[in-house]
Design goal:
By secondary structure, the protein is mainly α. 81% of the residues lie in helices and 0% in strands.
Length: 95
């Protein structure tokens, strides 16, 4: 399990891959969140309607194609994790 010159240990590569996937999922969640909020803001609408539409579209896509269920659930968990991180950040900032 040692590393030779120019190669990373397997555990470090696995950890880097896990970090990359997690960061990418959270970045995608942030992008979706910001797009929906900006769209609602520009059109002077409440964002609740856009979130409801997104959930409905995800539900329909998941019902039509079962292979999309796992990515939809993963994106949902990333959105929840994003909300928790932002919530803690706001709590710490307001102290």
């Amino acid at each position: 399990m040692g590393s030779s010159k120019g190669m990373l240990p397997e555990t470090l590569s696995t950890f880097a891959l896990f970090g990359f996937v997690t960061f990418t999922a959270l970045a995608l969640a942030e992008l979706v969140f910001q797009c929906i909020e900006q769209l609602a803001n520009r059109l002077s609408h409440e964002s609740n309607y856009y979130w409801a539409t997104l959930v409905f579209v995800a539900w329909v896509l998941g019902s039509i194609n079962n292979e999309l269920t796992v990515p939809i659930i993963m994106l949902s968990f990333a959105m929840i994790l994003r909300g928790i991180i932002v919530g803690f950040g706001q709590i710490l900032r307001n102290k």
